[in-house]
Amino acid sequence: MSSRIEILNEGGFRSDGRRQYELREMTFDSTAQAGADGSARVAHGLTEVLVSVFGPREARVRAQTLHDRASIHVEATIAPFSSTSDRRRRGRGDKRTLELAATIKATFEPVVQTSLYPRSQIDIFVHVLQQDGGVLQASINATTVALVNAGVPLADYVCAVTGGVHAAAPMLDLTSLEENDLPHVTVASMPRSGHLTLVSMETRLHVDRFEEILRLAGEAGPVIHKEMRAVVRQRTKDLLDGMGKGLRESNPAEAMIEDE
Amino acid sequence: MRPPSPSIPEKDFFFSALDQALRLDGRDFLEARPHSLSFGAELGHVECSLGKTRVLAQVDAKMVRPEPQRPFEGLISIHCELSPMASTEYEPGRQSDEEIALARMLDKIFRRSDTIDREALCILAGERVWHLRIAIHALADAGGLLDCASLACAAALRHFRRPDVEVVGANEVIVHPPALRAPVPLALHHTPYCITFACYRAAPEPSAAAAKGAGAGTVAGQTETAPRVLLDPAGLEHRLAQGMLHLALTPQRELAVVHKAGGLPLAPGVLMGAVQVAARRARELEAWLDVRVREDWVRKKVEVR
Amino acid sequence: MIIPFSSPPTLSSASRFGEDVSEGEDFYMNDGEDFEAERATITSPGESITSARAFMRGHGTYVDSDEVVASVAGIIERVNKLVTVRALRTRYNPEVGDLVIGRITEVRIVALACAIENNERRKVQPRRWKVDANARQDAVLMLSSVNLPGGVQRRKLESDELQMRSFFEEGDLLVAEVQAFFADGAMSLHTRSLKYGKLRNGQLVSVPPILIRRLKSHFCSLPSGVDLILGLNGYIWISKHVQDNEKEGEEGFDAEAVYSNQNDDIDDATRTAIARVSNIIRVLASRSVPITDAIVLEAYEWAVERDSDAKDLLLGDVADALIAAVTTKDELTEQW
């Protein structure tokens, strides 16, 4: 597929003014939904995803309970207003939505320490609010932060990034304009081991190019991890500060006991 | 009701064999099961087997009106059917998750990767195009159904020939029956082959496995602590896999689909090792398929007297 | 190759944060280090805490390649050689003896025919209620763990089983104590004390469970005729004060009153007081301030002094003033 749009100009800039390896601005909001056990709204540039996590809680469907671990249930919705090109309403049976949900479930099943919660259920609700490329990437990152916020034990963060190749030039974090024209790969890695939990590609790409992207995405993982970690730590600190205020008020001796 | 997971002794036996670098059917880690093809009388009718897994693929074409937004492109649809006849795991009636996953993967491998030249399926712009319908029936599932289905599908597409057509005047289309004019093969850009790997956690004491497996049967970059990667998992291997990796490659070392959703996390090196193995196997499959399809075509040729 | 990743100057940019929170090196505890002397140490999943050879792993951690690694975001706590990480937002983790407030989600009565036909099976599957108590599984309240009409210590009869719904039905709120655990980690509750039982005459407020600390008593009475029950699972019941002498005595156990579904008459002043207390608790919880009887009392006095409407407490500036008033009393005993 060739395009009338210049993906990478001679000065080395992309259509939105970024360099090849530059990521879009990331924002994380942990206060998105108060009713959930944990939630996160994550934006990568114009792509925005809201994830709410409920649980571990009593399983709603008794037939699906597992006697030795918690079951994870993921439901994804893509808002009809989320994209400019395709404004149709996607029902529950939509293939793309189901696949997004199945991918997120499979990605987090080995990462969440489900064996700690036998017979429980963890519900993850993914809402894609705006799409501009990298929907899977944003959904995975948002789910990670939401699970951490819910206090669900995880082996590690899962950091996802999209990479693509334009005329032998690899680039990261594609917009939908670029996704339409370039072969692209979504890679989710775990920063502690550097191992990959998810690799997903649907367009044709030469093996050597693929290797290059894989390496590049491996290097981008820690950058996203750093951002997520900073947000999580800031939230933890904020919560802790509030509790510290209360402690000052209450009996110091009791506070000491709690502190240990 | 889903059948219960493999019994504990089966599981134990499998993993202890794996610790000794042995597979249940005696294959090497990177050895696939034997594959074979048989062609039906009709063009585009192929039965493919991979070990005990058997899949029937049938391609047919009919003329339809194209979609208004794409007047120059033919239509392709892939239908999958997993009946309880293939394996006790499948229920009759309702579409199972496996069926959706299989259809989705085949769709990605053959449709989204632009295997078939859709514009070559156009007869009369905006009026008449070919609609290719690929039907996949699983006859027996003993693991590796996706690999077998994609091989069957690739073979069927290569085997299939559509009737020759001629446009006369403004919008009159004449279809020449195969008896009068030799049918035309499909215009394929490339042929992707799907190759599946199953991953298992590294052996608890690596020495034994590494000593035996270090020779022929390990993926390059697989060190002592690296997870074990098996090519073409069968039956129990499939069900006990801790992670699955599906790769679809063309013989030109191009990846069409990479699908590794969750499961055991892999180091990038291990993944690339698997990709190299798969690339080799795709080339072998291509050479083999080429010979088989040509043989059948020669046999089908009718002398014109 | 140098990869110039962007570091956008956004709100989430790491450089904004305090030195020991974000950019600081990973905290790594060495054996023998005086760890308690430091401030609370924050960690998050996947971060190494210490060597697994010198320390034992506790909740919120796992062991990976000879290191204790955090699996939740929270603060590191150490008791001798045991290292745990406590998450600041999580579901309630029950312990035996905890006072909890719950809601009945299910009443399980097996059909009478089955009970008569197979006397044995009745013993295997006792009659019980399922209770949502904000934990990872619903709690179980056995019929044998509740007080029944006609004396505290009497045998359970079949007729009791048949009228289980007249004691507690779906949607009822109750206060109970954690009695024991089942093998799969589900908790079993009991209400075999006159303090426990069905709740009425008030409203429920739900807060993160970590904000409720273990106190001498979780039942407290505020001076304005409001009773407060602080459930350790984060559910708080605020109700009209019940006079001690009105409470049912040991002998005169009045099932009608204990299992009644009818609210008493509540006057407007009490209703306002209940609303005020519940809004105070909501404000405290939104600022992550631990909720104790003392702090609620102080906040209540502050609110009464200001003579503001109960609903005004939820306004941003009033809430901030309230937090400031109740938390800046005692700067000297800073703990964190």
Automatic annotation (TrEMBL), chain A:
GO biological process: nuclear mRNA surveillance; poly(A)-dependent snoRNA 3'-end processing; rRNA catabolic process; U4 snRNA 3'-end processing
SUPFAM superfamilies for this protein: Ribonuclease PH domain 2-like, Ribosomal protein S5 domain 2-like
GO molecular function: RNA binding
Gene3D superfamilies for the chain: GHMP Kinase, N-terminal domain
Localization (cell): Cytoplasm; Nucleus, Nucleolus
Keyword terms: Cytoplasm, Exosome, Ribonucleoprotein, Ribosomal protein
Entry keyword rRNA processing: no
Presence of the UniProt keyword Nucleotide-binding in the record: no
Family per similarity comment: Belongs to the RNase PH family.
Subunit structure: Component of the RNA exosome complex. Specifically part of the catalytically inactive RNA exosome core complex (Exo-9) which may associate with the catalytic subunits RRP6 and DIS3 in cytoplasmic- and nuclear-specific RNA exosome complex forms. Exo-9 is formed by a hexameric base ring of RNase PH domain-containing subunits and a cap ring consisting of CSL4, RRP4 and RRP40.
Protein's recorded name: Ribosomal RNA-processing protein 41
Taxon lineage: Eukaryota, Fungi, Dikarya, Basidiomycota, Agaricomycotina
UniProtKB/TrEMBL annotation, chain B:
Organism this protein belongs to: Russula ochroleuca
Pfam families assigned to the protein according to its UniProt record, in alphabetical order: RNase_PH
InterPro entries in the cross-refs: ExoRNase_PH_dom1 (IPR001247), ExoRNase_PH_dom2_sf (IPR036345), Exosome_comp_Rrp42_subfam (IPR050590), PNPase/RNase_PH_dom_sf (IPR027408), Ribosomal_Su5_D2-typ_SF (IPR020568), Rrp45 (IPR033100)
Top-rank taxon, per record: Eukaryota
Subcellular location: Cytoplasm; Nucleus
A single MF term (Gene Ontology): mRNA 3'-UTR AU-rich region binding
Keywords assigned by UniProt, alphabetized: Cytoplasm, Ribonucleoprotein, Ribosomal protein, RNA-binding
Main location: cytoplasm
Protein name: Ribosomal protein S5 domain 2-like protein
An annotated GO BP: nuclear mRNA surveillance
Cellular component, GO, one term: nuclear exosome (RNase complex)
TM annotation in the entry: none
UniProt family annotation: Belongs to the RNase PH family.
Location of the Exoribonuclease phosphorolytic domain: 31-163
TrEMBL record, chain C:
UniProt keywords, alphabetically: Exonuclease, Exosome, Hydrolase, Nuclease, RNA-binding
Domain K Homology: 202-242
Sample GO molecular function, one term: exonuclease activity
One GO CC term, this protein: nuclear exosome (RNase complex)
Pfam family, one: KH_6
GO biological process, one term: U4 snRNA 3'-end processing
Exosome complex component N-terminal domain span: 43-79
Highest rank taxon of the organism: Eukaryota
Keyword Transcription regulation: no
Protein localization: Nucleus
InterPro entries hit by this protein: Exosome_cplx_N_dom, Exosome_RNA_bind1/RRP40/RRP4, KH_dom_type_1, KH_dom_type_1_sf, NA-bd_OB-fold, S1_RRP4
Domain RRP4 S1: 123-179
Family statement drawn from the similarity comment of this UniProt entry: Belongs to the RRP4 family.
Protein name: Exosome complex exonuclease rrp4
Organism, as annotated: Russula ochroleuca
